[in-house]
Each structure stands twice: as structure tokens, then as C-alpha cells.
């Protein structure tokens, strides 16, 4: 097995285009699963919150009020009795419940074969599904081209998969789940014990500085305005990049994410797609800035210092 891995790695090192192509296909397939994560994980979280409310407050979902009336029961009712996770139930059309055939789940190609419509009821299928698959494939193919078949590439690809899922969920729900950010944080600290990207000291300081920097901004803004300017998930996501890339990259990530977020926010206000005062998710901008810093952070910093 080790001989096969060595041969494969050597072959891919000599053929970067082939390695990038293989990485694209694999990552696009993972992107198909990330679509499931983006849609289902928030639903799973909401069901869990509902179950906790039922248990602690003995309050019930409006759909079953008629069944129990105003009576309070000692044993809370299971509002969602059917099993629901990232695997069950299988993929189906949300309108007609027709099962989606395996070949229709092929990344990008499946959507094209269906012409963007359900094979059974012809309901339109969002173009976001192939876009996420294509984006995931392109991002990982870019990593493959720059990093080659290496340990750094392996973990950078894992980070990318998580970032795609986090970005999609934050855009939909204004939420960065702990189920994704915390494992990434611990994984960054763990791999950098071996110095995969940075030294252990830089990783630990980076995680602390990443969290506390936005945490401090949050409380300063709240003390001045009485409003919350961002969520705790943003603190944790920046801590993730601190753990993976070190404290040295944090100023660049904060600067890039703030600039892009400001440009997008102002553009949306001008085009009347966003009302002034309405919150927008900041996680996607942190994720994009962190991913850029992963590949080109040192080059950008060296370029900037060279211009001084």
C-alpha cells in the first residue's frame, strides 16, 4: 500500500495538470455532499433546539397544539418523529418527493442532464447546487496546482470543504455552526503541533488572538451603540485561521474581509438589494480572505512591505 501511495504521489508530482484534474473531480463530488450539509445541518440544529425547548419548557410545536390543547404533559412530545440527518432521508424532490436517481446526483453533470428541472415534476432545481460543486472543485484544483500532492494539500483541501459549507450556511441562515468551526479550530492546532503550516506557538497565539480581536470589536461596538455588530461564530472562524495560519496572517485576513464586506455592502445598498441597517453575514468574507491568505498571504505581505 505504501509503495502504491509513493508511486501515485511521484506520478502526480510529475503531472501537475493531471493532479489538478483528479482533485477537481474528487472535490466536485464532495461539493455535492456539501450541498446536503448546507441545507440539512441548520434544519438538524433547529430540530435539536426545538426538542430542547420541549424538554425544558414543556412547550409544543404549533402543529400539534390541537392534539394536546392547553394541557401540559410530564413527557414532552417528539415534534419531529421521523429520522433526519445528513444521510437519511435520501435525496428527493422537495415538491413531489420523487427519489433522485444516483446518476442525477453526479456533480454539475447531473444538473445539466436534468436541464435544471426535476425529472418527475419539472420543478426548477436551483443553480446553486452545480455552482457549489463547481466552486469546490475549482478551489481544490487550485490548491492541487500550487501545493502538489503533499500533506499541506490534504489539510488545505479539508479546510476548503469546511469553508464552503460554512459560507453557504451563513449566507442562508446568518449562522456559523459550532459543529463545523470548533472541529476546524482543534484540527488546526493539532496539525500544527507537527508544524504542517506554522509552529505550534504561532498556532496557539493565533487562535487566541483571532478570537479576542473580533470579540473586543464586538464589545466595543456594543458598548458604544448598544447593538451587536457581529456573531460569536465570526470570532471562532477567525480563531480557526489563527490556529491554521498563525497570528501573523490575522491583520491581512481582517483587512481583506473588511474591505470586501464593505464594498459588497455598499454596492447592495446602492442597488437597493440591502436596506441600511439590515445585517449581512460576515463569515463568507472571513472565509474568502482566509483562503486567499492560505495560498498567497506571504506573497501579499511581502509585496506590501516592499512598497513601503
UniProtKB/TrEMBL annotation:
Q: Which residues cross the membrane?
A: 17-38, 129-147, 153-171, 180-198, 204-225, 237-270, 282-305
Q: Where is the Prepilin type IV endopeptidase peptidase domain?
A: 158-266
Q: Which reaction does it catalyse?
A: Typically cleaves a -Gly-|-Phe- bond to release an N-terminal, basic peptide of 5-8 residues from type IV prepilin, and then N-methylates the new N-terminal amino group, the methyl donor being S-adenosyl-L-methionine
Q: Which molecular-function annotation in GO is an example for this chain? A: methyltransferase activity
Prepilin peptidase A24 N-terminal domain mapped to chain residues: 25-146
Q: From its record, what is one biological process in GO terms? A: methylation
- Name where it's found: Cell inner membrane; Cell membrane
Recorded GO cellular component terms are: plasma membrane
User: What InterPro entries does the entry give?
Assistant: Peptidase_A24A_bac, Prepilin_IV_endopep_pep, Prepilin_pept_A24_N, Prepilin_peptidase/N-MTase
Indicate how the chain sits in the lipid bilayer: Multi-pass membrane protein
EC number(s) reported in the record: 2.1.1.-, 3.4.23.43
UniProt keyword terms in alphabetical order? Cell inner membrane, Cell membrane, Hydrolase, Membrane, Methyltransferase, Multifunctional enzyme, Protease, S-adenosyl-L-methionine, Transferase, Transmembrane, Transmembrane helix
Q: What does this protein do?
A: Plays an essential role in type IV pili and type II pseudopili formation by proteolytically removing the leader sequence from substrate proteins and subsequently monomethylating the alpha-amino group of the newly exposed N-terminal phenylalanine.
Give the family, as the similarity comment puts it. Answer: Belongs to the peptidase A24 family.
State the name under which the record lists this protein.
Prepilin leader peptidase/N-methyltransferase
The source organism is Shewanella aestuarii
Amino acid at each position: 500500500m505504501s509503495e502504491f501511495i509513493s508511486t501515485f504521489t511521484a506520478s502526480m508530482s510529475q503531472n501537475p495538470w493531471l493532479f489538478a484534474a483528479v482533485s477537481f473531480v474528487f472535490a466536485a463530488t464532495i461539493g455535492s455532499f456539501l450541498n446536503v450539509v448546507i441545507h440539512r445541518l441548520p434544519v438538524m440544529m433547529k430540530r435539536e433546539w426545538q426538542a430542547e425547548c420541549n424538554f425544558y419548557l414543556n412547550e409544543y410545536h404549533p402543529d400539534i397544539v390541537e392534539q394536546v390543547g392547553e394541557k401540559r404533559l410530564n413527557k414532552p412530545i417528539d415534534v419531529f418523529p421521523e429520522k433526519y440527518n445528513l444521510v437519511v432521508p435520501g435525496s428527493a424532490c422537495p415538491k413531489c418527493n420523487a427519489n433522485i436517481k444516483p446518476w442525477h446526483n453526479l456533480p454539475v453533470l447531473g444538473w445539466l442532464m436534468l436541464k435544471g428541472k426535476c425529472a418527475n415534476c419539472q420543478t426548477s432545481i436551483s443553480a446553486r447546487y452545480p455552482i457549489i460543486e463547481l466552486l469546490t472543485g475549482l478551489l481544490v484544483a487550485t490548491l492541487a496546482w500550487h501545493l502538489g500532492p503533499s500533506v499541506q494539500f490534504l489539510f488545505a483541501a479539508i479546510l476548503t470543504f469546511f469553508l464552503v459549507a460554512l459560507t453557504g450556511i451563513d449566507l442562508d441562515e446568518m449562522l456559523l455552526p459550532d459543529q463545523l468551526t470548533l472541529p476546524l479550530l482543534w484540527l488546526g492546532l493539532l496539525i500544527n503541533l507537527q508544524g504542517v503550516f506554522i509552529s505550534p506557538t504561532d498556532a496557539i497565539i493565533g487562535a487566541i488572538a483571532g478570537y479576542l480581536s473580533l470579540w473586543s470589536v464586538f464589545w466595543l461596538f456594543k458598548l458604544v451603540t448598544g447593538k451587536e455588530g457581529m456573531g460569536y461564530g465570526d470570532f471562532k472562524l477567525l480563531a480557526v485561521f489563527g490556529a491554521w495560519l498563525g497570528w501573523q496572517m490575522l491583520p491581512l485576513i481582517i483587512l481583506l474581509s473588511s474591505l470586501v464586506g464593505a464594498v459588497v455592502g455598499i454596492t447592495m445598498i446602492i442597488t437597493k438589494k440591502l436596506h441600511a441597517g439590515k445585517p449581512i453575514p460576515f463569515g463568507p468574507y472571513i472565509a474568502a480572505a482566509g483562503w486567499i491568505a492560505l495560498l498567497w498571504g506571504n506573497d501579499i505581505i511581502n509585496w506590501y512591505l516592499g512598497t513601503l
